[in-house]
Design a protein that fits this description.
By secondary structure, the chain is α/β, with parallel strands linked by helices. The protein has ten helices and ten strands.
């Protein structure tokens, strides 16, 4: 499949997806979702990949659903947005969470509506200081989707989640980092080098261990402590048999840096 709405690159263990409709602040269309599904399938199917970057082209990260696809002229039937969520947003959010490698989101500018929540579905979010997060849904008569009602209270607590969802107010990247909504806020000029260093670090990391940590952390939301201890035991048991664990211990014992293969 050739891409017109995203850019996709991969190499040296790193996959990079750039939302690429800058004149529309990279808002999601049906066509962009189809390309994202294709790119995600390529990432999932390529065992050489060890980290994924998601970012946006131009001055914005993503302004959510392209509203030009949602206009309802008088006398016409509204779009069934339950169906588009099922077809587009649900697979994207679940796909990001299920990928067995870390997903870094570099929020280069405004992240609004589903754009904000797709960012929150990623594993590590680094935002430029000028970026903002806007739960814009209430401004157009909708509720936060793309996982917003799941991620927000878990990340920042119910009081702040409610405030964000019910006002649609802009949250600065600095405030988002202070609240624990995202991992880091950096100066605009630092976004690219900081993210690049993180990508290099994670591309050389023990990928299976990172994937297991991601899986366990996601599972914990619905688990008791007892169940979570079982999850940790089972995942750790498998990691105990991995090449990277063997290498990690050998490198520690030999007082040398480890060379992880991701296996
Ligand atoms: O429908 C379903 O399937 C259900 C799922 C829904 C998920 C959702 O995401 S619903 C929420 C949709 N998003 C929004 O409501 C946000 C709309 N955008 C804005 O509120 C503002 O654009 C921003 C606050 C994000 C940024 O403001 P600003 O002033 O920096 O930029 P701007 O001038 O508003 O936008 C620049 C251009 O992008 C502009 O086009 P123009 O005038 O230069 O020709 C604007 O119309 C366009 N644009 C921005 N967001 C969207 C968009 N075009 C289409 N859809 C957008 N969402």
């Amino acid at each position: 499949m050739s891409y017109e709405n995203i850019l996709f690159q991969s190499g040296a263990g790193i996959a990079r997806i750039t939302l690429n409709r800058p004149d529309r602040l990279n808002s999601f269309t049906d066509a962009m979702h189809a390309e994202l599904r294709d790119a995600m399938a390529r990432v999932k199917g390529d065992a050489s990949l060890r980290v994924l970057l998601l970012t946006g082209a131009g001055r914005g990260f993503c302004a959510g659903q392209d509203l030009s696809e949602r206009e309802v002229p008088p006398g016409t039937e509204p779009v069934d947005i339950g169906a588009t969520i099922e077809r587009n947003y649900k697979p994207l959010v679940l796909g990001l969470q299920a990928l067995p490698l870390p997903v870094i989101c570099a929020v280069n500018g405004v992240a609004a509506g589903a754009g904000a929540n797709v960012a929150l579905a990623c594993d590590i979010v680094v935002a430029a200081k000028s970026a903002t997060f806007i739960q814009a849904f209430c401004r157009i008569g909708l509720l936060p989707d793309a996982g917003g009602t799941y991620f927000l209270p878990r990340l920042v607590g119910t009081a702040r989640a409610m405030g964000l969802a019910l006002t649609g107010d802009k949250l600065t990247a600095e405030q988002a980092a202070q609240w624990g909504l995202i991992w880091r806020c950096v100066e605009d000029a630092e976004l690219q080098p900081v993210v690049e260093a993180l990508l290099q670090q994670l591309a050389a990391a023990p990928t299976r261990a990172l994937a297991a940590a991601k899986e366990a952390l996601h599972a914990s939301a619905g688990n008791t402590l007892r169940t979570q201890l079982d999850v940790e035991r089972d995942l750790q048991q498998a990691l105990g048999r991995s090449d990277d664990f063997r290498e990690g211990v050998a490198a520690f014992r030999a007082k040398r840096p480890p060379c992880f293969s991701g296996r």
